[in-house]
Structures
1.
Amino acid sequence: MELMEIIQKRRSVRRFKSDEVKSADIIEMVEAARLAPSGSNLQNWHFTAFKQKNSIKRIADAAIDAMEEIAGNLDAVNKTLADKFRRFSKVYTFFFAEAPALIVVMSKASALTGFKEMEEAGLDASRLYIKSPGMQSLGAAVENLLLRAFDLGYGGCWITSANYADTRIEKILREETGFDKPDYYMAALIAIGVPDDDAKPFKKKQIEDILTIVE
Ligand SMILES: Cc1cc2nc3c(=O)[nH]c(=O)nc-3n(C[C@H](O)[C@H](O)[C@H](O)COP(=O)(O)O)c2cc1C
């Protein structure tokens, strides 16, 4: 497929057929991620693809436990918010339990250029955190991965809403795969599979709303 057609047709997929995601295809997807640009060419990413139902269920259970712990604590303070969190999580997080493949995306913090210098100069550098080049690099890699997944006939969904379960999921990852990079942390999950829905692409902003050309 042409690049622009892939970009136009890609959409988030949250319901999957039971078809296997072939390991050779996962390699292709991560190959696309591998070639993404990254700040200082740090390539601050690692992808672990789980295909076994048991492992995916273990990760989903860990996320559900973490969500219930938060919601349980919240119940006494704000029951409405706790219930909203539970409903949101069901739709936008735990669907990954049924995905034929689940990729755990690990990342590493990268230096914020100018941060040290600003701090030393007595200037407030805290606003640089939200512009983290490390996270921007990771975004480039994940999008490449998702575009290639679509190109290969799969659908996927980028998931950050389980990040509150990060330490639990990292523990599973380290136990099941021996992942041993201590400075890497969980940044996202990606659910992958053959789409089993007929959802339409989400409405996007118009070009004039997001682009200014100064000629
Ligand atoms: C950084 C990031 C985090 C996201 N996290 C979630 C998530 O936790 N759960 C979910 O269902 N979708 C998640 N999405 C998918 C978005 O909801 C989706 O991209 C958006 O609604 C636009 O739809 P589209 O991907 O079909 O164009 C995420 C997307 C991005 C880029």
2.
Amino acid sequence: MSFLENYQQKGELLKVYTYPHPVLSKKSLPVTNFDERLKKLAQDMLYTMYKAPGIGLAAPQIGENIRMFVIDVEFERKKISRPRIDNPELIEVSYHLSNFHPRVFINPKITRGPELVKCKEGCLSLPGVYEEVERAATVTVEYHDLDGNLCELSAEELLAICIQHENDHLDGVVIIDHLSFLKKNFHKKKLIKRQKLTAAQNGRYLDGNNECNDDDEDDEDENENAAAEGGGNERKI
Ligand SMILES: [Zn+2]
């Protein structure tokens, strides 16, 4: 039985690469080996996605230029606050995740419907960026599952948006590539500045290709800011 059925949060936390790391701008190659390594990678990607938290994660975001992404637009995440056992005056915060619907798409081929929608999107590789992107409202996607079987899925609403966002990653495209030159440059500068700051905080030497990873706490802050800005509807993809 596949680990996707009766999904349990198991796996390794992978490093999520942030823009402008070159791995995010490359066109990824099709998957040809449907082996145990691929299953392990998909499992680790899902684990990393849920931990972030995000609703989608594409292989280039964790440094692998292969045509695979994972998605779950349905899981629920509940914040639990309780007094710490060792010091009841302090509050310990944790998160309980449930209602998992993990999906793995390999070598996807997308057919877009005619209707267009605009939706504000965030991305785990572009911390702090939430921008409106125009996408097809519906898609049909042909893809391989982890065993190499050919599958087809028709999607609408958030799932359709998420599939297009993740598929973009496989072609080296991120959300700011959909924006005007000025807006893209604005975000690019901010992201580079943020990266340098994180690197400096980590006490690392800076160079042109420096890459950083946000820790969990940073991601939490981003999400809370986004919730405050946009009514809590934005989720990172
Ligand atoms: Zn993304």
